[in-house]
Amino acid sequence: MVDRRTNYAKDISRVIGGIYSRFVTIYKTEISLSIKAAETSAVGKSIYAYDKNGKAADAYKEFTKEVLDGGKQRNKHKSELIR
Questions:
Q1: Using CB atoms within 10 A as the burial measure, which of 15, 38, 40, 59 is most buried?
Q2: Total domains in the fold of the chain
Q3: Residues 6+ apart with CB under 8 A from 1
Q4: What values do phi and psi take at 51, rounded to 5?
Q5: Can you tell me the distance from the alpha carbon of 68 to that of 63, in angstroms, rounded to the nearest whole number?
Q6: Facing residues of 32 across strands?
């Protein structure tokens, strides 16, 4: 999960991508920090069962599509994925 509200978080994300992208696939889709996503563990449900129309569920759907597409960049912009 990514918290894009601070410059520090943005910098860390950029540094991690710069260092590790040579060794592992860095996907474009970002899962925003979400209380609903964190609550799923407590209630024992998936994000789709707990909050199927929420931002986190949408982001996970896009991430799944990206993984299944082999990491090809999707046409949607990041801001559309995290609404």
A1: 59
A2: 1
A3: 31, 32, 33, 34, 37
A4: -150, 65
A5: 9
A6: 2
Residue 1 domain-assigned?
no
For the whole model, what pTM was predicted?
0.72
Angstrom distances, CA of residue 37 to CA of 10, 44, 51: 21, 11, 8
13 lies in a domain?
A: yes
- Whether 56 maps to a domain, the answer reads yes
Contacts of 7 (CB under 8 A, 6+ apart): none
Does residue 42 contact residue 69 with C-beta atoms inside 8 Å?
no
28 neighbors 2 (Cβ within 8 angstroms): no
Judge whether 2 lies within some domain: no
